[in-house]
Specification:
single chain, transferase, 198 residues
Length: 198
């Protein structure tokens, strides 16, 4: 209950304080390329419940590309504004809405797309999905250059499934086992530090 109250208070305050910034970002996204301001994609939430995550759109709006699940290196679909939003992580700000809706938490394992859930070992899946997914976690920090790592691979999909995903799951398990108010504060502080000193 305490974690949920903290999430509600912080997300609500964040949306109020960041409203002018988010409005400017929305305008920049709209002016930079045709398409919606937000990118919405189905993710898997707590107890395996699906939800649609909110992000600022960072790629050209191409419905035909909807099936592509990972971003590799300097993806040509990324817009000029999108590249800036991705590098600064500002594209993640709309997920404060998902926190208010109860789909996400500020801190928790990042929500995965449904197709990769099949690669979760059953016991790991149950453990990781026992908590709300988060905007940030240790895996997000350690793999903040994930697209560059995948770009260096001759088979990005295989590298993600066999190397990146198992490592992320280990971080997720570690979080679930150590979850607490101070753990969340440390991860939030570390996330802000990484963003500011990128």
């Amino acid at each position: 209950m305490g974690k949920r109250l903290f999430d509600l208070a912080a997300a609500g305050l964040g949306l109020v304080l960041l409203a002018p910034v988010m409005a400017l970002i929305a305008l920049a996204v709209k002016l930079d390329s045709p398409g919606p301001v937000f990118f919405r994609q189905q993710r898997v939430g707590r107890y395996g419940q699906p939800f649609r995550i909110h992000k600022f759109r960072t790629m050209q709006h191409r419905p035909a590309d909807a099936g592509r699940q990972i971003t590799v290196g300097a993806d040509p679909r990324i817009t000029r504004v999108g590249a800036l939003l991705r590098s600064s992580k500002l594209d993640e700000l709309p997920q404060l809405i998902d926190v208010l809706l109860g789909h996400m938490s500020l801190v928790g394992p990042r929500p995965e797309v449904p197709r990769y859930l099949a690669y979760y070992p059953p016991a790991v899946r149950e453990q990781v999905l026992s908590v709300r997914p988060g905007i940030t976690d240790l895996a997000s920090i350690e793999y903040r250059r994930e697209s560059e790592l995948l770009a260096a691979s001759s088979d990005p999909e295989r590298t993600y499934v066999e190397e990146v995903l198992p490592a992320k799951l280990r971080y997720a398990q570690q979080y679930v086992e150590q979850a607490g108010f101070w753990t969340d504060l440390r991860l939030l502080a570390r996330t802000l530090f990484v963003i500011v000193t990128r």
